Amino acid sequence: MQFHLPSLLGTIDWLWRHDITNVELATPGPMGIVGLFAARLLKLPITASYHTEVTELSRELSSNAFLHKLSKQLVGWFYGAVDRVFAFSESSRAKLVELGVAAAKIEYAAVAIDPAEFSPAHACPKIYPSLGIGASDAPIVLSVGRLSREKNLPLVIEAFDRLRHLDQPPVLVIVGEGPEAEALRQASAHRPWVIFVGLQQGEMLQRLYASASAFVFASRIDTLGLVTMEAMSSGLPVLVPKDAAIAELVKHGRTGYCYDLHADGLASTLADVLASPHRAGVARNARAAMVERWTRSRMTDVWHAMAGGALGA
Questions:
Q1: Cα→Cα distances 133→27, 125, 192, Å
Q2: Whole-angstrom distance, CA of residue 8 vs CA of residue 63
Q3: Does residue 228 contact residue 238 with C-beta atoms inside 8 Å?
Q4: Which residues of the chain are in CATH 3.40.50.2000 domains?
Q5: 308 or 56: whose pLDDT is higher?
Q6: What architecture does CATH give domain 120-295?
Q7: DSSP for 93-146?
Q8: Which of 235, 246, 191 is closest to 209 using CA atoms?
Q9: Cα–Cα distance, 17 to 210 (Å, whole number)
Q10: Nearest-CA neighbor of 44 among 5, 84, 78?
């Protein structure tokens, strides 16, 4: 993990020369801390978004108890020092309060996915065959995200191992890159039903979403889970852990499916989903939920909450 420390004087100069009136911080790391000090010295209003569960991430990546305690103190201090904090889920709001951030300065921000950008209309029957996938009629289940330890991909792969007995066992297609990519590829070298297609973006990613049979997400420490929302908007039945933040947006059996986060729990739920005659209806409901969310979450409202709220308007 690399950290980069920006220049405090350079940041102050840039803010001053560009007539910046509000500062929004997206990380409690070196960049965010320098931005915080620069904004305070210029007496600018400051908001921050709680994007990453840093304290839980430190626990996932290290068994060092001191590091975990230090990260809790740092994150609590950082978000407590800004004028307003935006949380993307109720579980994230609760985590901030637990870290000592005053509840009065935490505001819920409804993040939404553009339903035109991620849509069933992007489905393409040739997209998976173009990657050498889909020679059989096996259902394709998609996973999208950074290939890192906290995403729990070994658990997902183990769950797929337990479904080889099905008449049509699913294929797992993994989109993304990250620090665990090589280890995951090596561990799956003898598993032809686990396929890595690397980082995909734009039209290619849209088509991969819209052309899959289902989507699986296994992280418990994301503050929301935008990839799951992209999948729902694309008209896919999604499977998420019961205790993940994104589960707040998934109504089990109606707009998606929630499972116990272990290999048996995921395997059992996925087998039921693939065999369910209601799967297509759940996918349509998921799409409708994302369309409604987009309609209710206008960017102008978000901006007024960030700028106007911080200014006391």
A1: 38, 11, 10
A2: 32
A3: yes
A4: 8-110+297-310, 120-295
A5: 56
A6: 3-Layer(aba) Sandwich (3.40)
A7: HHHHHHTT--GGGEEE------TTTS-GGG--TTTTGGGT--SSSPPEEEEES-
A8: 235
A9: 45
A10: 84
Q: Does domain 8-110+297-310 match CATH 3.40.50.2000?
A: yes
Q: What does the chain come to in residues? A: 313
pLDDT tens-digit profile of 44-98? 999 999 987 777 776 777 777 777 788 889 999 999 999 999 998 888 899 899 9
Q: Which amino acid is present at 108?
A: Y
218 touches 248 (CB < 8 A): no
Helix (H) or strand (E) holding 273: helix 263-275
Q: Look up the pTM and report it.
A: 0.86
* Residue 59 three-state SS: helix
pLDDT band at 1 (very low <50, low <70, confident <90, very high): low
